[in-house]
Amino acid sequence: MESLTGEWRLTFPRYSREQLFQLVANIEDYPSFIPGCVATRIIRREGMLLHVDNMFGFGLLRSRFTSQTRLEPPHQAVVHSDNGPWRSFQLEWLLEPLNNGTGCTVECRFTADLRSSTLAGLARLALPETERRTIAAFEKRAAQLFSSAP
Predict the structure, then answer these.
(1) What letter does residue 15 receive in the DSSP assignment?
(2) Distances, alpha carbon 92 to alpha carbons 95, 111, 122, 148, in Å
(3) Which end of the chain, N or C, is surrounded by fewer C-beta atoms within 10 Å?
(4) DSSP assignment of 81-117, as one string?
């Protein structure tokens, strides 16, 4: 079965790498802004390794799975899962400071192999819109958290 893959890169000229890493690492806040994220809960911490219980859903479809997130502040977070709907899932966040000394670029890459070919087909159809909505939600959340009032 063919993997689902994606990659996007955002530039935030006014927010620091540390601020944006804080946003990425605050997993338990994801349901408040990430489309399709119904619930997340850190079930165990081992230093910078987080074991997370996740519930994602779109429409009537709901899927629960556990994942492991390895945090490497302030430049990287890697999420991995091989249960629930996933044969294999990996999401990598890379954060790099801009040369202006203030801003940051955030790159997100993922690869997913689903257990169900039907679910994989549905995911493939929904992927472009889901990525667009997730990027918009991430930008909006960063502005809410880090933009100072005029």
Answers:
(1) S
(2) 10, 9, 23, 29
(3) C
(4) E-STTEEEEEEEEEEEE-TTSS-EEEEEEEEEEES-H
Q: Among 32, 22, 54, 57, which Cα is nearest to 140's?
A: 32
Paired strand residues for 94 = 76, 107
> Whole-prediction pTM value?
0.91
pLDDT, tens digit, 9 for 90 and up, residues 48-83: 999 999 999 987 889 999 999 999 999 999 999 999
Q: What is the CATH number of domain 4-29+69-146?
A: 3.30.530.20
**Residue 122: per-residue pLDDT:** 87
- Domain ranges in the chain are 4-29+69-146
Residue type, position 64, single letter: R
Q: What is the dihedral of CA 143, 147, 149, 150, to 10 degrees?
A: -100
